[in-house]
Amino acid sequence: MNKLIFEIGKIGHQGLSLPASDVPEQEMSIPGNYIRAEAAQLPEVSEPELIRHYTVLSQKNFCVDTHYYPLGSCTMKYNPRINEDMARLSGFTSLHPLSKFNQGALQLIYELEQDLKEIFGFDAFTLQPAAGAHGELVSLMMVKAYFQSRNEKRKTVLVPQSAHGTNPASASMCGFQVIEIASQEDGTIDLVDLKSKLNTDIAAVMITNPNTLGLFEKNIMEVAEWVHNVGGILYGDGANSNALLGKARPGDLGFDLMHVNLHKTFSTPHGGGGPGSGPVGVKKQFIPFLPRPIVLKKESGYEFDFDRPQSIGKIKGFYGNFGVLIRALAYIRASGPDGLKWVTEQAVLSANYLKEKLKNYWELPYSQPCMHEFVLSGEKLERETGIKTLDVAKRLLDYGFHAPTVYFPMTVKECLMIEPTETENRETLDAFAQAMIKIYQESHENPDLVKNAPHNTPVSRFDEVKAARNPILKYSPINESQPRE
Q1: Where does the pLDDT of residue 3 fall: very low under 50, low under 70, confident under 90, or very high at 90 and above?
Q2: Among 34, 162, 245, 282, which residue has the fewest nearby CB atoms (within 10 Å)?
Q3: CA distance 327 to 88
């Protein structure tokens, strides 16, 4: 087989007008210390059997290619195939990560930064952070460096009750004391509580807009003015930027710096925990503190600038997750300004459409129009039937749908956070709504059916307590005739 591969390889290289001598046969040999003393005990299977095995395994999975994920941009926004094609171009895949002089790669970094500056209204961007939480941490590090450069010892950060949990974690990691801002009955920031906590000890206020309930903080410009009046910094958690493209620029709303999730808003792979990308946009006063190096455009071309004495330093190996940057720029350029605006319009329309279809069955904590996502509560359903939100999530699998985000935000009891995104058609949204309504009815008519779900998946319901207390951390053969925990 190796001989056959080598011969075909020579033909391939000749087809590319490369001499066959450029592929020496000794490159196909294996050093003796890596050769087995005995043949590996591998099963003898044909190619069709192997293909069928992996195809069947893939069919047992839920993925965005086969099922609807109402998790939306959190992890499973659709990734256009053209993005993948661009990331696989040989000029990128063959690039050594230590190369400092590749003009194409530097140009891509520079142009993506320029596009993000225009979209979000900031003066500069760093693309180094590897995820949203990493972008938060980098932002708070720059806030700390900024005040140190001014000889100000501010030690408090205000975080709304509805914030992502990584917000207070990032602030704490930078040595700040975190104080919570209460929420009003309508789900937005309690302005009275915020104003009472603003003083000259405040380093920053961290605000997600739209917030995690899918609601736009309509008083954001007033909040920005209050924060700036006490010399504080307004940080934006840009995780929900899918609701803003072409409609509002956070930099114009008063935010001083903000992270953006490329692996969410700009449609790059993130399922399974990564790789992600959380670039940070800043206003001009924070440019000296950006992670180094930054990319400069000069008459002679593009180059890295390491000479930045006030920089917080390098915070990611090489220059961020470069493959994600390629995909994000491809998405932006393929969509264009009008396309990005359509993304937001359609995402907001889809979320409000589902909210209206479900509000007469499920408890709706906030009745005002939502942005790209909305929340329902299963608290009343649990009280009436004993069915928990987790049971609903499991039952959705039987109807061919992945569950939405559950039990977050924690400000809503038995919460379901539904984010349909812009790429799902009306028929899919209708089918999901019907499944949710059907599960609501089943919960009243036959609660055991829902409590024991899922019934139609390759793996039945796990014992959640046992799985948490006794996780299986290594591979072991499974007897398919036995039920799985």
Answers
A1: low
A2: 34
A3: 10
DSSP 202-230: EEEEEEESS-TTS---TTHHHHHHHHHHT
Three-class DSSP category at 444: helix
CA separation for the pair 403, 395 (Å, rounded): 9
Looking at residue 101, its pLDDT comes to: 66
Q: Which of these, 331, 368, 332, lies nearest to 352 by C-alpha position?
A: 368
Quick check: 203 and 176 in contact, CB under 8 A? yes
pTM of the full structure? 0.86
Q: Tokens 């440019």 map to which residue? A: 287
Cα-Cα-Cα-Cα dihedral sign, residues 6, 11, 12, 16: positive
Question: What CA–CA distance (Å, rounded) separates 485 from 306?
Answer: 53
Least confident of 48-62, 163-177, 282-296, 446-460: 48-62
Would you state the structure tokens that stand for residue 482, as one six-digit string? 């036995």
Class of residue 358 by CB neighbours under 10 A (exposed 0-12, middle 13-18, buried 19+): buried
Burial of 407 (0-12, 13-18, 19+ CB in 10 A): middle
Residue 16 binned pLDDT confidence (cut-offs 50, 70, 90): very low
Report yes or no: 242 and 214 within 8 Å, Cβ to Cβ.
Answer: no
* Token pair for 218: 């309509």
The whole-number average pLDDT for the span 31-37 is: 86
**Domain ranges (residues) in the chain:** 1-34, 82-334
**What percentage of the chain reaches a pLDDT higher than 90?**
72
User: Token digits for 330?
Assistant: 């491809």
- Name the least confident of 11-15, 124-128, 312-316: 11-15
Distance of CA 57 to the CA centre of its chain: 26
CATH annotation of 82-334: 3.40.640.10
What tokens appear for 257 in the block? 């710096």
Q: Prior bond to 275 cis, omega within 30?
A: yes
